[in-house]
User: What shape does this take?
Amino acid sequence: MTEFLLELLKKEVKKRGYISEEAVKKISKKTNIPVSGIYGVATFYSFLPTKQQGKNVIHVCTSPTCAIHNSLDLIKFLEKELKIKLGQTAKNKLFSLYETSCIGCCDEAPAMLLNGKPYIKLTKEKIKKILRKCKS
Ligand code: FES
Assistant: This one.
């Protein structure tokens, strides 16, 4: 049943970009899974957002290899640059910032995903360039 639920949630994210409250209620009716159970599954996975996302969604890896290579400092830097906290979306809806577990780029840490595309060997300078491109 969890696999079926995940498929429904992924479909919703593909369709609308996030899982709305209405969608959760609809899925609850369809599957007989309580609303709280659906939120429990959705909030467990960082790629199943339950809030509307920005145009550019950043997931910074905080697993051990990236953390050793300063990904936590890069998150603080991103928070300052984007004027949002981890887990938030900017008021202008240009960026959302999240952390994630390993994205499979450990040998080129620290790494992040921007709209699903990996960026590796990150530095503050590299991030500044990436953000500039997104804003233009
Ligand atoms: S630990 Fe960050 S990509 Fe694997």
User: Anything to note?
Assistant: Residues 61, 63, 65-66, 102-106, 109, 111 surround FE2/S2 (inorganic) cluster (CB under 6 Å). The radius of gyration is 16 Å. The beta strands are 56-61, 95-100, 112-114, 117-119.
